[in-house]
Design brief:
There is one protein chain. This protein is an alpha/beta fold. The protein has 2 domains: 149 residues, NAD(P)-binding Rossmann-like Domain (Rossmann fold, 3-Layer(aba) Sandwich); 107 residues, Dihydrodipicolinate Reductase, domain 2 (2-Layer Sandwich). Helix 1 links the parallel strand 1 and strand 2. Helix 1 packs across helix 8 and helix 5 runs parallel beside helix 6. The protein is elongated, with a radius of gyration of 19 Å. The protein starts with a strand and ends with a helix.
Length: 267
């Protein structure tokens, strides 16, 4: 039985992860925590998630329960995730990180720390999106410089980072597929008299609104024809299911940093 601890247990993703753990054979929730000021601290994690009493209270810190589990699942915020990752390294716990918005020094530190334990870190835990990553890379290589490449991502109005981690990962995959440096060719805004589109640029555009769980479109536009890859998340359960699948997988792996392509055998 894999014993799981959930960070951000009273958040939107935390609640769905707890729900999926409850439905998953071979896994049990043994710990949950939130930041100390959260109103759900000391309440039952199952009741907060809407699945009934599980006998697991929501603690005010990871430190109080770090020795209870096999794996920590974290979909919180960059600062909190790094703090939890440092603690996981100290305790030898495996970890699944779905937090987005890690960039620059934060991302570099996260990757360095994650490689010291058993860790899956991915911008998107959805099985469908990870198949999309694989296919988009192959399409970029096959279509090459004859097709313009654009990405559009759409999320709910509360999402804090833009573009999404998934969109940025897609852009990196496309750039690598045609041998370009995304730092030089990524275009995130178009306004005014911008002139004709260059052959090298890769557009990454953002929409925000309502309660949209997540949509990503990759467009390959050639002369006289266009191909599109589209993934639409109907709710957060696909991310939660992917995270739980990753947690079940990673506890049996040697120390190292993995992603969902490893979990799904797509590499």
């Amino acid at each position: 039985m894999v014993k799981a601890i959930v960070a951000g247990a009273a958040g939107r993703m935390g609640k769905r992860i707890i729900n999926i753990i409850r439905q998953t054979r071979g896994m049990a929730l043994v710990g949950a925590f939130e930041h100390p000021e959260h109103p759900s601290v000391h309440k039952d994690a199952g009741e907060e998630a809407g699945v009934g009493n599980l006998g697991v209270g929501i603690e005010a810190s990871f430190d109080a329960i770090s020795n209870k589990g096999d794996v920590l699942i974290d979909f919180t915020a960059p600062e909190g995730t790094l703090k939890n990752l440092r603690a996981a390294v100290s305790s030898g716990l495996a970890m699944v990180i779905g937090t987005t918005g890690l960039k620059g020094d934060q991302l570099e530190e996260a990757r360095s720390l994650a490689g010291r334990i058993r860790c899956v870190m991915a911008p998107n835990m959805s099985v469908g999106v990870n198949v999309m990553f694989k296919v988009a890379g192959e399409m970029a290589k096959l279509l090459g410089n004859e097709f313009d490449m654009e990405i559009l991502e759409t999320h709910h109005r509360l999402k804090k980072d833009a573009p999404s981690g998934t969109a940025m990962h897609l852009a990196q995959i496309l750039a690598e597929g045609v041998g370009r440096d995304l730092e030089k060719v990524g275009i995130y805004e178009r306004r005014g008299q911008i002139g004709a589109r260059t052959d090298e640029e890769i557009g990454i555009q953002t929409w925000r609104g309502g309660d949209i769980a997540g949509e990503h479109t990759v467009m390959f536009a050639g002369m006289g024809e266009r191909l599109e890859l589209i993934h639409r998340a109907h709710n957060r359960d696909n991310f939660a299911k992917g995270a739980v699948r990753a947690a079940l997988w990673v506890v049996g792996q040697p120390a190292g940093l993995y992603d969902m392509q490893d979990v799904l055998g797509l590499k």
